Fold these 2 entries.
Entry 1:
Amino acid sequence: MNRELDDMFELIKKLCNSHGISGYEDEIRDVIKAEIEGFVDEIRVDKLGNLICIKNGNDFTQMLTAHMDEVGFLIKHIDDKGFLRITPIGGWFSQTVLNQRVVIHGNKGKVYGVIGSKPPHLMRDEERKKVIEIKDMFVDIGAENKDDVKKMGIEIGNAVTIDREVVKMGNRVTGKAFDDRIGVAVMIECLKKVETSSTVYAVATVQEEVGLKGARVSAFSLNPDVALAIDVAPATDFPGGETANVEVKLGKGPAITIADASGRGLIASKKILEWLKTAGEKAEVDFQLEVTEGGTTDATAIHLTKEGIPSGVVSVPARYVHTPVEVVDLRDVEATVKLVSKAVEIAEDIFKF
Ligand code: CO
Ligand code: ZN
C-alpha cells in the first residue's frame, strides 16, 4: 500500500473511532478542527454546531459539506434493575443493533455497555424466527440497580454510540460511522491539497441523519454560488445487493448523484453534472453515476436555500451503510479526493457568468 493510502487510513481511523451522534457532535468536531487548523484562514462554529472552515479567496464562493454526525441512540428509560432502554437516532435496521457493544456518553465520561438478548439456549422455536425491535431491546452496563446507574453518571438523554474500531481488510477498511466521516476525510484532504483563487467554505455539518439540519442553516448564512455535498453511496456489489438494481460498486471510483430519493431529494442540474463529470475526466479518475429511490444528503437542503443554490453530490461507495461494519475501498476514497479537488479548482470557470 502506498504512503498516500496509509495516511488516509490513519485519518479515517482518527475520524471514525471518534464519537458523536446527531446533536452531540462535540468530540468529533474537536477532532476535525485539529486536523483542519493550519490549512484554512478561519474556523468558526455556528449556533447549531456546524464547523465552518474558510479558505479566503475572491468573491466566487463555493461550499463543501460532509456531515460529522453518526447514527446512534439516546437513553430514554432506566429501570429499577439498572437496564437502559434506547431510542434510535437515525435509520437503523433492528437486526443490526442486537448484541452490539456500545459506548454511553455519560456525565462522568464514557461507560461501556452491551445490547443484550436471550441466548439461543433459552429461546422457543417461534422466538428464533422473530425480529426483535429496538424498543424491546435493553442495554446492560454492568449496573446492579437504578442507583448504580446514577453513580456511573448515566441519566436519561445520554448519547449512545457503537463501540467498534476501524481495521484494514486488504485495500479496504471497515468500521462504524463511515457515513459520513469518510466524507469528512475527503473534505479534509481536499482542503490540504486544493489550489483555487475562489473562496471555499468547508462545512462539517451537524444533524444530517435526522433531517439535514446543519446544512440548512449553514447554507442560509453562507449563501454560496455553488455547493457540493460529500457523502457515502450505498454500494450493491455483495451477495443479494444486486436486487436493488443500483449500479454502485466498490473500487470503481466516486459516485456522482444524478437523482436521489426518486427525485424528491436532489435532481442534479445539467450544469452540475457537467461540472462534476468534467472534474472526474480532468482528474483522470473513474466515476460512477447514481440514481436512487432512497436516502438523501445535505445537498437536498442546500439546493432549496434562499433563491436556490446549485448543488451536487459526490459519494464514496460504501457497503453495509448504517451498520457497525461499513466497508469502503481506500482507492475510492483517494479518487474522490482527486475528483472533488478538481471540481473546486474548475468551479469558477463553469459557474461564473
Ligand atoms: Co446516513
Ligand atoms: Zn450520510
Entry 2:
Amino acid sequence: MDKTSLTDTRARHLKYLRISVTDRCNLRCSYCMPRDLIPKLTHADILTYEEILRVVRIGIRLGITKVRVTGGEPLIRKGIFDFLKALGALEGLQDVSLTTNGVTLEKHLDQIQAAGIRRLNISLDTLDRARFKRITGRDSFDQVWRGLQRAYAMDFKPLKINVVALPGLNEDELEKMAALTFEYPFHVRFIEHMPIGKNNVATTGRLLTPEIKRRIETLGVLVPVQPGLTDGPAERFQIEGARGEVGFISALSRHFCENCNRLRLTAGGQLRPCLLSDRQVDLKTDLRNQVSDDQVAERIMAAVRIKQARHGLTDEIPKKVCGQMSSIGG
Ligand code: SAM
Ligand code: SF4
C-alpha cells in the first residue's frame, strides 16, 4: 500500500477526493433537486467530521493530494469552519477548496480564509435577481453577488463561477456570464446539465458545449489555456483581451473519463468512483464497526477497482443516475 495504490487498471491515478459534507441545502435549484425534496439523511446518517478526516488521512497514505468540500450546501453544516481548518492542517494535501452556492458566503469569508482556503467555486446561473429566484426558489441573488465581490476584494483566487447551462432558463445569458471575464479575473465555467437524481429540469432539449461555445465565441476568439497539473475536466480558454477565463465541462457531449482522477465521498458515507454511475462502496459501515485503517484502505481501493472505463450517459441515451446530486456533491 503506497501513494500509487489508487491507480486503476487504466492507469488513472485517483488523487482527487470530493467530499459532500451534507445533503441539506438552503436553495432548491430546479436542476439539482425538486422544490419539495426533504433531505433523506438524518444527523446520525451523515458521516461525522472525525469520520471524514479519518478517510482523508487514509486517502493521503494512498495518494490523495487534492480535496474539495461540497454538499448540499457545505456552509450550512454546523462546525464546518473547524472542519475546514482541520482538513487544511493535514500533511500531504496540496489543495483544499470549497464549492458553495454563496448565499451565506459574505459573512463567512473571514472564517474560510482563516481556515486556509484560497480556492472557491461559487455557483451562479444568472445575473438577474428575479430569474435567480425562479431557478433556486429563493430571492438571494444580492447576497451571492455581495459574497462574490467580497471574496474578490479579499483576493481569493482563482474564483470560479459555476454556471449550469439550462435551455429556456438561462440560455440567453451565457454571453453575459462569459463577459464577466472582461471585467474580473474570474473563471466562468459552463456545465452541461446532467441527468442526476430527482430534479425539475427536462432531460430533453439539452444545451451542450458545442452550442454554448458557439455563443461565447461571438464575444471574441477563444484562446486555449494550458491545463495545470491538478486540473479537472474543464476545457479552458481565455476570450481574447479578457482578464479571466471561460471553461466548459462537457460530461455528456465529450466524455473525459480516460483522464478522470476523482473519487467522491457522499454525505452518507458511500464512496463513488464515478459521478455518472450509481456504483459505490459503503465506507460508513466499516468506519462505525471499528475496523482498522488498513481495512478502510482496502475498501477505498475496492472503489477504485469498480471504476468503469467510461460512463454510459450521452446526450442521446436518456439514462439517469439515481443518487441525488446534493448528496454526491457534484
Ligand atoms: N450547494 C453548492 C453549490 O451549489 O455550489 C455545492 C453543491 S452543488 C451539488 C455542486 C455543483 O453541482 C454546483 O455548481 C451545481 O450547479 C452543480 N449541479 C447540481 N446539479 C447539477 C446537474 N444536474 N447537472 C450539472 N451540474 C449540477
Ligand atoms: Fe443546493 Fe447546490 Fe443543489 Fe443548488 S446546486 S440545490 S445550491 S446543492
